[in-house]
């Protein structure tokens, strides 16, 4: 099959489009998926740079992967069709099902060798869900890792209706979904009639930071207050928040704006108490839980306007993601 892969750590230049990669074997609890669309995440390029490997490897092997004959096919997020191979213990999915998911359960600790930037990939059935009916493959592929990171972390922090939240990095893949999941309840009666469906968390107030050009965008997602980080420091605001969701790496500043008893979810950068580090665990159950919100349009996929990038432009898509300026998700389609 065709697949993007690398056999040494490094920048975008180590990525190669290969024509002859073996289709991965299916384990008992896995299905084989014909990939229709895939999405990129920063963890893909952090892993490609070798950031998470032990220092001893760096010392002993330089840029080489742990085994000389090894290749890594990047890609966590997938949307595609289950094809003929279904493991013997698989109960839920059958040939022809349209599925999506983050196919790597533990993003950093147990990365998979063959990811989703390939014509075919395998995934454990517990990591998948049926694609929501109203979403196409591009939209579905954009969601899993980011939406699960948003949801699981908010749940872990005990976020609940009526609390306030500040999202650092509101325009990014994760931040744009945190804002939508947090969404405040509509205040007027007219709105109440029109938006009967329950919000996911129902915050009392959502504030979010972005650069000047993206302020209207973060408001359109549901932020009540958009803070231009190029012009003001969020810690100078007069108000404090029950929770800060830090998708940028500014926990040292974030702790100054939490209310007493509040907390900071840290998904990037260093942690300062009372902040806590959160690392996503992929789980199809979260996608199933969120399905009603996706099908009702309460939570919408956010696609970067520069995409989707075709399969032969994966390297350009990574270069773009690595500028740290993407808006929502960078998707690869068609594959
Ligand atoms: P993105 O690449 O989608 O983030 C890009 C966005 O970040 C841009 O829209 C940019 O907006 C915004 N941004 C950059 N700098 C700032 C700033 N100083 N203040 C506010 N916004 C800023 O990344 P993701 O959302 O996918 O991921 C965010 C981080 O979280 C990454 O480091 C990623 O590795 C990590 N992560 C961790 C996970 C975990 O489980 N721990 C899971 C998922 C992601 P603008 O152009 O307006 O600056």
Structure, described:
- The protein is α/β, with parallel strands linked by helices.
- About 25% of the residues lie in helices and about 20% in strands.
- Strand 9 (about 205-210), helix 7 and strand 10 (about 225-230) form a beta-alpha-beta unit.
- It is globular.
- NADPH dihydro-nicotinamide-adenine-dinucleotide phosphate (NDP) binds near residues 42, 172 and 175.
Q: What's the number of extended β-strand segments?
A: 14
| Gap from first CA to last CA | 11 Å
H and E string: EEEHHEEEEHHEHHEHEEHEEHHE
Form type: globular
Mean of pLDDT: 93
Q: Sheet with the most strands?
A: 6 strands, antiparallel
How would you classify the helix and strand content by structural class? Answer: alpha/beta
Q: β content, as a range? A: 15-25%
Task: State the share of residues found in helices, binned by percent.
Answer: 10-25%
Report the total helices. Answer: 10
Radius of gyration: 20 Å
Query: Could you name the ranges where pLDDT drops below 50 across 5 or more consecutive residues?
Result: 187-197
Cofactors and ligands = NADPH dihydro-nicotinamide-adenine-dinucleotide phosphate
Show the helix and strand layout:
Layout: E1 3-5, E2 16-18, E3 30-39, H1 42-49, H2 55-61, E4 77-86, E5 98-102, E6 120-124, E7 128-130, H3 137-141, H4 144-156, E8 164-168, H5 173-182, H6 189-194, E9 205-210, H7 215-221, E10 225-228, E11 241-246, H8 251-254, E12 258-266, E13 275-277, H9 284-295, H10 314-321, E14 331-332
Parallel strand pairs: 8-9, 8-11, 9-10, 11-12, 12-13
Antiparallel strand pairs: 1-2, 3-4, 3-6, 3-14, 4-5, 5-7
This protein binds NADPH dihydro-nicotinamide-adenine-dinucleotide phosphate (NDP).
């Amino acid at each position: 099959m065709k697949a993007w892969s690398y056999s040494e750590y490094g920048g975008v230049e180590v990525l190669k489009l290969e024509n002859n990669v073996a289709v991965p074997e299916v384990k008992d609890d896995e299905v084989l998926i014909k990939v229709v669309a895939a999405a990129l995440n920063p963890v893909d390029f952090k892993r490609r740079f070798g950031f998470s490997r032990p220092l001893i490897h760096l010392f002993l092997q330089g840029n080489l992967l742990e085994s000389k004959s090894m290749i890594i096919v990047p890609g966590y997020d997938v949307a595609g069709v289950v094809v003929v191979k279904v493991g013997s213990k698989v109960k839920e999915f059958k040939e022809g099902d349209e599925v999506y998911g983050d196919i790597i359960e533990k993003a950093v600790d147990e990365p998979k060798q063959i990811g989703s930037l390939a014509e075919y990939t395998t995934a454990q059935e517990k990591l998948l869900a049926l694609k929501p009916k109203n979403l196409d493959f591009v939209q579905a592929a954009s969601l899993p890792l980011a939406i699960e990171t948003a949801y699981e972390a908010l749940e872990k922090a005990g976020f609940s209706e009526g609390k306030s939240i500040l999202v650092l990095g509101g325009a990014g893949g994760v931040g744009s979904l945190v804002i939508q999941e947090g969404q405040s309840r509509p205040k007027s009666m007219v709105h109440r009639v029109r938006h009967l469906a329950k919000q996911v968390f129902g915050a009392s107030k959502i504030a979010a930071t972005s650069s000047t050009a993206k302020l209207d965008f973060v408001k359109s997602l549901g932020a009540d207050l958009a803070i231009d980080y190029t012009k003001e420091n969020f810690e100078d605001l007069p108000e404090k928040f029950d929770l800060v969701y830090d998708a940028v790496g500014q926990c040292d500043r974030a702790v100054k704006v939490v209310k007493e008893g509040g907390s900071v979810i840290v998904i990037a950068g260093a942690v300062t108490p009372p902040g806590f580090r959160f690392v996503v665990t992929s789980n199809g159950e979260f996608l199933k839980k969120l399905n009603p919100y996706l099908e009702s349009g309460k939570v919408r996929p956010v696609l970067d306007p520069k995409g989707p990038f075709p399969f032969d432009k994966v390297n350009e898509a990574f270069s773009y993601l690595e500028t740290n300026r993407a808006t929502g998700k960078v998707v690869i389609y068609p594959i």
